[in-house]
Amino acid sequence: MKRFLVLLVAFVSLNAFAQGDATSSSSIKFGYLSYQAAIKSMPDYTLAQQALIDLKAKYQAEAKRVEDEFNRKYEEFLEGQREFPKSILQKRQTELQELMKKNIDFKNKSLDELKKDEAQTYAPLYAKLNATLAKICAEKGYAFIIDTDTKAVPVVNPLMCEDINQAVQDALQAENDAQQ
């Protein structure tokens, strides 16, 4: 749907460009950039990445701890299963099944939590980049800016479009320098 909207806007804009007279149509400009490259060039990106790596390590350590606990209890079960009365054997099997289910539930929940944390961690970066893009768009008079990462626009005409990758990186760096 997102690609369709990008293509629709591009088509309408290009159609208007083609139908307009030479003087009015020559003022329509477009910018393009790699959104991912812009995000990765931000100084805060490395901090966000490290925070997510640290959080992932904590989840992995907890998953390892509960897995080790399960393995220990399973080994105890295997060692004593021949000597346990039937009711104790069934009780231990049930405990192991419940523990396994809890471990699986934890892993699934931790994956969901990591996705939420990733979205929250990157949200300020996306907001900052989008604000910078809006500012550049207004300053340079672009009709819109195309994200070349989506592959919805595999080719851009350099006569009608301007590569703004460096301009975005410069604006982000200037903004970062001003904050420090």
Question: Could you explain how this protein is built, in words?
Answer:
The chain is 76% helix and 8% strand. The chain has a three-stranded parallel β-sheet with strand order 2-1-3. By secondary structure, it is mostly helical. Helix 4 (43-80) packs antiparallel against helix 5 and helix 5 (86-140) crosses helix 6 (165-179). It has one domain. It is elongated. The protein starts with a helix and ends with a helix. The relative contact order is 0.19. The chain contains six helices and three strands; from the N terminus they run H-H-E-H-H-H-E-E-H. Mean pLDDT is 86; it is low at 4-9 and 18-25. InterPro entries: Chaperone_Skp, Skp_dom_sf. Pfam families: OmpH. Keywords: Coiled coil, Signal.
Rg value:
27 Å
How many structural domains can be distinguished in the coordinates?
1
- Inertia-based shape: elongated
Compute the number of helices.
6
For the biggest sheet, the summary is: 3 strands, parallel
What is the number of beta strands? 3
What class, by secondary structure content? mainly alpha
Q: In percent, how helical is the residue content? A: over 70%
Strand order of the largest sheet: 2-1-3
Low-confidence stretches: 4-9, 18-25
Gap between N and C termini, in Å? 40 Å
- Average pLDDT number: 86
Q: What fraction strand?
A: 5-15%
* SSE series: HHEHHHEEH
